Amino acid sequence: MAQPQVIVIGNEKGGAGKSTLAIHIVTGLLHAGKKVAIIDLDLRQRSMERFFSNRAAWTAANGHDLPLPFVPDMGDGKALAKADEAEQLARFDAAYAEAQAVADIILIDTPGGDTALSRAAHGRADQIVTPMNDSFVDFDLLGEVDPVTLELKKPSIYSESVWEARKHRAITEGRQVTIDWIVVTNRLAVAEARNRRRLEERMKKLAKRVGFRVGPGLRDRVIYRELFPFGLTVADLSNDIRPVSVSLAHVAARQEMRNLMQAMGLDDAAGGSLAPLDAAAA
Q1: DSSP strand pairing (143-145 vs 152-155)
Q2: pLDDT tens, position by position, 228-258
Q3: Residues pairing with 152 in the sheet
Q4: Which of 86, 116, 138, 163 is most buried per CB count within 10 Å?
């Protein structure tokens, strides 16, 4: 069996929308027929893992059949969060081995912050997806800017972490390994802003310097939050499955999701595999 592709959702800052991005990527892959395993390394919160638990409960209660990822057992997350690094890494290694045996793609959601588990995950990545809000607060983890001119000065701590991950892969595998790194602008407000234009200019400069691509993320839409308790995303909505009222905005949200998957190079997960969704249907 070929080695699965490993996608890591990473950003050392909380609140950037990592888990929201993760669940949408996973559901898009599932609807494309991929065998997906998920590992949630945010041990205390485990938003991604809880989302898919909600999904199983909701579909069972409502008589629907939706695809689910494989979830290797890492035990009690809160207890593991209190364990030492050696035990945490051992649990991660065991879960990763389970996932490798069954999946086409392993998606790992990492916590905000620099942890041993996060570093281990980044060191195994084939692709790193970093969501960030259109804010210099978020950009500060990627690059430092001059406080007077706002010109880019140098890469910052998270860019250095990705560089270390790339170096680790090259050393452990004994060859030049390319980790595809894509930074997606997430939770964009609809209105254009001067701040965003300034930010985009610095992003382009930093992208050339440290080696990432800039891609589209998900706007700040109510639908993404509304569907979370059910374990659903806009990819799951159909003329039969609609626990909330469907509008043209939800059709647009689907297109956002397709754009994200295409930017990641997952074109077969961005095509016409989703059920028809008629915004005018009752």
Answers
A1: antiparallel
A2: 999 999 999 888 888 887 778 788 888 889 9
A3: 145
A4: 138
